[in-house]
Design a protein that fits this description.
The protein has a single domain, classed as Vaccinia Virus protein VP39 (Rossmann fold), CATH 3.40.50. It is α/β, with parallel strands linked by helices. The chain is built from 6 helices and 9 strands, in the order H-H-E-H-E-H-E-E-H-E-E-E-H-E-E. The longest helix is centred in the middle third of the chain and has 14 residues. The termini are far apart. It has a 7-stranded mixed beta sheet with strand order 3-2-1-4-5-9-8, sandwiched between helices. The protein has a two-stranded antiparallel ribbon with strand order 6-7.
């Protein structure tokens, strides 16, 4: 099963309460995005956004230029259904992040879902190239820390330290890094590291 088939199956067979990444309120992501100057009028892309509630809060804040990218069409359709007519305010992109060729630049790049699933150097380098070429201001990435799980949704992941994050996104300057413990819908915990970088 390839990556796309894997995620289409996940979103076809599991509810939000049956997957570990669900957050009723994506608190840290919102804090880091809201701290970006003029974020409501800036172009924001959420990588691996799936059916996350982040887009709901951004629209609620009055954000005018939001894009959500995910490998799973089923995940994005869930979000569209939940949002109803509000979904028309969002640009939806179905794509594997390693196959994504941006047609515009983004002031704010956010990812709490996709980056740690890239395990090969070529995949990680391709991701970073896309960031370097398309992001004009802020990169916000939440990913599994060195204390986090070694697998998620049955797939291998890559763990990151603050040093490793800074080395990976070396074209940007570190603005903020912190570790966070995420409590899953089934009351287990996962250790994340969130880093925000600014264009040098």
């Amino acid at each position: 099963m390839n990556r796309k088939q894997h995620w289409e199956t996940v979103y076809e067979t599991k509810t939000p309460n049956q997957v570990s990444w669900t957050q009723a309120v994506p608190k840290t992501s919102l804090e880091l995005i809201r701290a970006c100057e003029g974020y409501k009028t800036k172009s924001i892309i959420d990588i691996g956004g799936g059916d996350s509630n982040l887009v709901d809060f951004l629209l609620g804040d009055g954000c005018e230029n939001v894009t959500v990218l995910d490998i799973s069409a089923k995940a994005l359709n869930r979000a569209k259904t939940r949002l109803g007519s509000e979904a028309n305010k969002v640009k939806w992109i179905v794509s594997d992040i390693n196959e994504f060729i941006p047609t515009e630049s983004y002031a704010i790049w956010h990812d709490r879902a996709a980056f740690h699933f890239l395990t090969e150097p070529t995949q990680i380098n391709r991701y970073v190239e896309t960031v370097n070429q398309s992001v004009t201001e802020n990169v916000i990435v939440g990913t599994f820390s060195q204390d986090g799980p070694k697998k998620c949704s049955g797939l291998d992941i890559t763990q990151y330290s603050e040093i490793k994050m800074c080395e990976t996104f070396s074209d940007f300057e570190k603005a903020f890094c912190k570790t966070e413990i995420h409590t899953t819908p089934f009351e287990t915990t996962q250790h994340f590291i969130f880093c925000k970088f600014k264009k040098s």
